[in-house]
Amino acid sequence: MNQAPQIVQIQVRNVYGIPKIYPANKAAQVFANIAGKKTLDQADLANIKALGFLVVEIPLFAGVAA
């Protein structure tokens, strides 16, 4: 029986012009904790995807009407 992949949500924020990848849900926070970091990097995301997780970027201002 196939299960739907677990979702890891992230947000990309510019900090002094440098894009930083922040965890946006509990699963993403767990991976950041395992990595011993507050933010994730591209290598972390590649490893998360290799484990079968679906990585989804959440817009910085999601849910805010323009």
Task: Detail the topology: elements first, then pairings.
Layout (H helix, E strand, L loop, with lengths): L6 E9 L2 E6 L2 H10 L6 H9 L3 E4 L9
Parallel strand pairs: 1-3
Antiparallel strand pairs: 1-2
Structure description:
Helices cover 29% and strands 29% of the residues. The chain contains two helices and three strands, in the order ββααβ. Strands 2-1-3 form a three-stranded mixed sheet. A hairpin with a 2-residue loop joins β1 and β2.
Structure class:
alpha+beta
Helicity range = 25-40%
Distance between the termini: 42 Å
Shape: globular
Q: Note poorly predicted spans.
A: none
Order of helices and strands: EEHHE
Question: What is the average of the pLDDT values?
Answer: 91
The whole-angstrom Rg is 13 Å
Strand order of the largest sheet: 2-1-3
Percentage of residues in DSSP E strands: 25-35%
Helical segment count: 2
Largest sheet: 3 strands, mixed
DSSP strand tally: 3
Observed structural traits:
alpha+beta; 66 residues; three-stranded mixed sheet
Quick structural summary:
The protein is an alpha+beta fold and 66 residues long.
